[in-house]
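Its record is set out here:
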Amino acid sequence: MILVTGGTGLIGSHLLFHLISNGNRVRSNYRTLESIEKVRKVFGYYTDNPSALIEQIDWVKADITDIGELDSLFDGVEQVYHCAALISFDPKDFKTLERTNVEGTANVVNLSLKNGIKKLCYVSSIAAIGPSTQGKEVTEENEWNQAKASVYGITKYDAELEVWRGSQEGLPIVIVNPGVVIGPGFWKSGSGTFFTYASKEKKYYIPGGTGFVTIKDVILAMIALMESNIKTERFILVNQNMTYKKLFQKIAPKLNVSPPTKVVSKFMIDFFWRWDWVRSNVLGKRRKLSKAVAKGLYHQERYSSDKIKSELGFSFGDMDESIAFCCSKFIEEM
């Protein structure tokens, strides 16, 4: 039996589809029945009968922050893919992020140790990798710099520490640090917002750039690592380093719209995060752009995936193909 936490998210739902399609016995937690319907939608991108596969999953209602609810998830489990996480860049959400991402991961690690799990794969993020120095590509060895990290990045890094602690106590682990994951199904969050934004034929794009990876590559890399003898290692998963301008230039034509052509100036970014702070602290609105995130928009960070290529012989797929597929599904739904 394979356990997938966070199976109702972007990575988790695609992982579930791949595992079930290949004949594995799989269990996953969920919080609401509505979230399972999102998984059914994702499955529908790849099969004409998604319900048949959904029914093969052993669904258990459980929150990773509740150790009592989690305990039953581990009965008969041999492998764990820990994909569950909360994503937010609002500093006001730090305590909630800490509880879900750090304490929740500690719960998964502790129960994995208790139940003699053979191997755990933790899905972290490039947000938990230290920044580049002297313009060099970021690698797994970069020194962590909390002062330059978002609240999300801080909690993902602290969650990694819980996973490393588990490895020191005898739990075989691997960690993956994906870039921005390009995949269909969640158009109002994460990378899905790029497709939504582009579809509205907006005029402005943000400066800078980051590392991107397809959902297919993330899933294949995770499974290959779990089936290998590799353990106690972390791997950056980035297919292409791109500017946001370049990303929109790839997305827009496939949505039959024009890409944004005007860059948001540094002055406007500085003004907006300050105004956003005022809105949040005076009017009680949710933060849309924190100072840490704003500073990260000024330049393009570049990431190296040489480690997984050399140690696993992994080859990344076609980014343009994945973007085209996402665009086709977006058009069908919208």
Remarks:
- The mean pLDDT is 91.
- The CA atoms of residues 28 and 149 lie 31 Å apart.
- The two ends are 37 Å apart (CA to CA).
- The first strand starts at residue 2 and ends at 5.
